[in-house]
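Issue 218. Parser rejects a valid record. Input:
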Amino acid sequence: MEIKGTNYAKRRKDVLVVTLGTEEDSFELRILPPTKGVHDGLVAVAGYVADAAMGNAASSDLDLGRCLDLVAAAMSHNTDVRVITGDYLESIGFDLSDVGDFIGLYTYFVSELVDSKN
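Output the parser choked on:
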């Protein structure tokens, strides 16, 4: 008996494509779906960002460094295995607004993947 499985060498990966860097030095990043740890962290950060946007969070509740680190972890899960750090995001001017924008886009990407699989 022979059971044919998936050919992982030829399987197309779903990715979210974003451009990072500066106007003088930018690159495209092809981000893969999140690991469970990254997903759970981003869900928590999304709550902080939403509270901050509504004016319901004390500034002491929001750790921008941790937010950047979680976004960087999600971005580091990419097809080029390029490591992105929170410090790098900060150096290119990534701020709380960008964190919220990325989380919204990434959440949409993941929900589209889930919907397409069902």
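Fixed in the parser; the record now loads. The beta strands are 16-21, 26-31.
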